[in-house]
């Protein structure tokens, strides 16, 4: 794939991708859609939480489940959910990022976001409470991972 520059003399076009688009079609987005648009626009890409073809394996669905398990009978299972989310994101990084420096930096960032989420979930478990605001923080982590 040939790298193209983002032109400074063209109108700005903001593209938002989320869910299944980010989870399944990232190569198509990066190799077809964006390069074509760079001929006529300055492109800004915004991504939201990844998903897959199976809704239950989507990041947002898993984060909601992690929040719910904090107070449920399976307390502590949120740790495995967060590990699974991190593993999925690290695998996507490995498959889609070619530059080793970017890959390393992204992997470190993803790991730190998940570490902080784990600490937050453990604190919620200790105080035995997940308020609506806390749940927003937990689910919002998917946007940080994107």
Question: What does the secondary structure layout of this molecule look like, with pairings?
Answer:
Layout: E1 12-19, H1 20-24, H2 26-37, E2 42-50, H3 59-71, H4 78-96, H5 100-127, H6 132-145
Parallel strand pairs: 1-2
Task: Provide an overview of this structure.
It is a single chain. The chain has about 150 residues and is mostly helical. The protein is about 60% helix and about 10% strand. It contains six helices and two strands. The protein has helices spanning about 20-25, 25-35, 60-70, 80-95, 100-125, 130-145; strands at about 10-20, 40-50. It has a two-stranded parallel ribbon. Helix 3 (about 60-70) packs antiparallel against helix 4 and helix 3 (about 60-70) runs antiparallel to helix 6 (about 130-145). The radius of gyration is 17 Å and the shape is elongated. The mean pLDDT is about 85.
Descriptive keywords:
146 residues, two-stranded parallel ribbon, elongated, 62% helix
Q: In order across it, which strands form the biggest sheet?
A: 1-2
What's the N-to-C terminus distance? 23 Å
DSSP strand content:
5-15%
Determine the fraction of residues in helical runs and give it as a percent range: 55-70%
Q: Mean pLDDT, as a whole number?
A: 86
Order of helices and strands: EHHEHHHH
Rg, Cα atoms, Å: 17 Å
